C-alpha cells in the first residue's frame, strides 16, 4: 500500500472539511483581510469549488497520520495521479 491516499471531500463531516480548507488558506498565505468582507469564508467557498472541479485533492498521509489539502502539482510530486487508488505492491 502507498503512503498517501486520496480522501473524497464528500466523505468528510462539514466541520472537518472547513477546518482543512482553512488550514490550507493559512498555509498558502492567502490574504484573508480582503475588502469584500468575505475573508476566510470566501476562500473556503472558492476552495470547495476547486475541490468539486478536481483542482485540489484531500490526501491522508498514512505514515504521519495527517490529512491535508493539496494542489494537483503537490499530489503528483508524491508520484500519484488523480484517483490513483491501485495498490502498489510494496508489502
From TrEMBL:
Report the protein name in the record: YheU family protein
Q: Gene3D superfamilies annotated for this entry? A: YehU-like
InterPro entries with a match to the protein in the record: UPF0270, YehU-like_sf
The family this protein is said to belong to: Belongs to the UPF0270 family.
Native organism: Halomonas casei
Task: State the superkingdom.
Answer: Bacteria
Q: Name one Pfam family in it.
A: UPF0270
Amino acid at each position: 500500500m502507498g503512503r498517501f491516499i486520496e480522501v473524497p471531500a464528500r466523505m468528510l463531516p462539514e466541520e472537518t472539511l472547513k477546518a482543512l480548507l482553512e488550514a490550507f488558506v493559512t498555509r498558502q498565505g492567502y490574504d484573508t483581510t480582503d475588502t469584500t468582507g468575505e475573508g476566510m469564508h470566501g476562500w473556503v467557498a472558492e476552495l470547495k469549488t476547486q475541490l468539486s472541479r478536481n483542482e485540489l485533492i484531500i490526501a491522508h498521509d498514512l505514515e504521519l497520520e495527517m490529512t491535508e489539502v493539496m494542489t494537483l502539482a503537490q499530489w503528483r510530486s508524491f508520484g500519484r495521479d488523480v484517483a490513483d487508488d491501485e495498490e502498489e505492491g510494496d508489502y
